[in-house]
Amino acid sequence: MSKKQTKEQAKDAAEKTKEIILPVSIADEMRVSYLDYAMSVIVSRALPDVRDGLKPVHRRILYAMNQMGLVAGKPYRKAAGVVGEVLKNYHPHGDVAVYDTIVRLAQDFSSRYPLVAGQGNFGSVDGDPPAAMRYTEVRLTRIAGEMLADIDEDTVDFVPNYDESTTEPVLLPSRIPNLLINGSSGIAVGMATNIPPHNLGEVISGLLLMLDNPSVSIDELMKVIKGPDFPTGAKILGRQGIKDAYRTGRGSITMEAETEIEEIKGGRETIIVKSIPFQVNKAQLIENIADLVQSKKIEGISDIRDESDRKGIRVVIELRRDANAQVILNKLIKHTNLRMNFGVIMLALVEGQPAVLNLRQILSCYISHRQVVITRRTQFRLEKAKKRAHILEGLKIAIANLDKVIRLIRESKNVDLAREGLMKNFKLTQEQAQAILDMRLQNLTALEREKIDEEYTQLLKDIEGFKSILASPKKVDALIKEELEEVKKEYADPRRSVITGAAEDIDIEDLIDKEDVVVTLSHAGYIKTQPIDLYRAQHRGGRGVTGMETREEDFVEDIFITNTHDHLLFFTNRGKVYWLRVFEIPAGNRYSRGKAIVNLLQFVKEEKIAAAMPVQAFDEKTFVLMATRQGLVKRTAMSAYSNPRPSGIIALKLRPGDELISVKPAMANQDIVLATRHGKAIRFPVASVREIGRAGFGVKGMKLGHNDQIVGMEVVEKGVDLLTVTELGFAKRTGIEEYRQQGRGGSGLINLKVADRNGSAIGILAVREGDQVMVITASGTIIRTDIEGIRETGRSAQGVRLIKLDAKDKVSGITHLAAKDDEEEPEKGENNKKNKTTAEK
Description:
- By secondary structure, the protein is an alpha+beta fold.
- Helix content is about 30%, strand content about 25%.
- The chain has 4 domains: about 55-175, Topoisomerase II, domain 5 (Alpha-Beta Complex), CATH 3.90.199; about 260-335, 2-Layer Sandwich (Gyrase A, domain 2), CATH 3.30.1360; about 370-490, Topoisomerase, domain 3; about 510-840, Neuraminidase.
């Protein structure tokens, strides 16, 4: 053949096979192709069928194992063999995906009622991976057998497999409500499902209730189906999320680890974690706790141990002796996966279409499925019984005419003629005639003839029973109930997840003892709290005790008494205010510096605290009263400072060179007293200071002399005394009546005679009989003394010595506290003993 002929033939072949190209819009093609892909994912991969609760891969695995004979009670077989069988006949996808599905079906911490029994390493709740499939062995569990029961009795439809070499079931008969008891999760295209597992006994009780009363409400169903029941146990906090999920198909359920606090030797406590939320990795949880301890976000934990075993989870968290176990537990719950939310989306396929279902709809779909299964099974058994009865009728005729039948068969030349002769002479069907020909000689005995009669009689009864079932939907429902009760009796177990009260935002305040504490703040910005009891009452002129250990370049700048449940507002030199709870301030002893305030508050560069104010409640009737070094005052509603941001909010605007020196809560019917360093003071009504918003400037409160400045501000009422303390440790107490009320902005009156002996004024306090005073020095020494120890004098007195100071030491701050009602004056000997102990410390 020439090259020319070859080219011509090739050209002709190309023209014959030439494809026809049609113009197609790419947008239309993308839309159609994507929808086809989406529906394939939805129907054939990601979503479970509402009837058996299985996705195609789960269904194929269970069916393949059943066909392989890997049922409960039979020997285990290699998981690799199961994977190969599933891939070969039913699921031509990745072997890893199939094996991962088998593993999940076998994990008792993933499935509430595992459908696969595994032998070997199938992973752990710590996230450990399973062994390779060549090392593990599997078989079906007993409860999985209930999923496949009656599958050979035409109860479900079968379709050709992917290569039409065999068939596979469209769904399983499922004698157990698998969708609810094992739950399901999956992400399709544009939709997802997340159905929590439930307790088998409770779900069956709900089904029985619905079978008795098809119009039962969801609220009535919830009386028996309490809520999800997770394989890892844990607590479910509150019922609202459960109600939302059951009523609408969507809800958020809060899970929390089961914990308890145990006391161990040495007076210390431990937190025991006994169960964890569903799908939480225990190893990662422990690692997260360790990270929080290492970063000091949670303090007070000394050791963490995992003592979990086959009996269950047990994580031991040991605490230091001084730690508050309940507070640490709540911090752990807040910052770790000890508390998790399970977002419920009860999405499943209903007749091939995805739908979000409520609890009643899921149960109704399952009952409808079982009604179809029971009906088809009964019809199958009826047809089988009819066929057998038909055969027995032929055998009975043959036995009744035994001699004739034997003669006919003996005289027939072949089987076909014998069959035709039987059919013609005895009016038998082909099936009956064939059964007679197949009959063994032993069936001709008298005993076998009786068995045939008995079997035939029983078949007639069965046929009538099957017909009555098919004719009565009530009998179908009765069968469903009977089988459900059998399943419940066989497999029901106690609930693992405990349903408790509603989950609320963790408020540590409710877990902290309400007690007064001393808050000390150093010039360098170190803060701490200490129990008041550390500072015993002393007589005026005592040496005091150390209240805070400071470095040489640091000194204590502020001290005040507050309660652990109070808030602290920190006002800075830049006119901003920050918000902190007292119990959030770390506790210390008398010799510790405390914690840097910059680690507790988000200060900006070069910002430092100018004043701090304890607040019990933010209300409209109480005002925040502020005074600046240059004599300005400002009044703002307390409620304006109730919700500062972490980065702070504006408290007031300051003029250049001015700074905030005091902040006090005040009522409109009270008076203000401002005192200066040079011994002047002024008293005027709070109401004379007009209310100004947070971002405004103040108004003039006092006219200052040359080089003078405001050192203190007090809000006073009738009957109080004004205590003035100097930098050299002197104090003077004067009745407030001696300070007549003046107009705001005046120069004021004499408050203190300033001299070299007593030094300049450093602060003032409004005190009453029974109060106790606490004075702190720049070196960190504190003295606590009764106010009665300071005699009352006139305004122009120098005062009496309150504390003995070492060389170069000066008083830096004062505060007061009310004396305890049950506080008794110690005896002299006892007081001397305490002084000795304090000195030794």
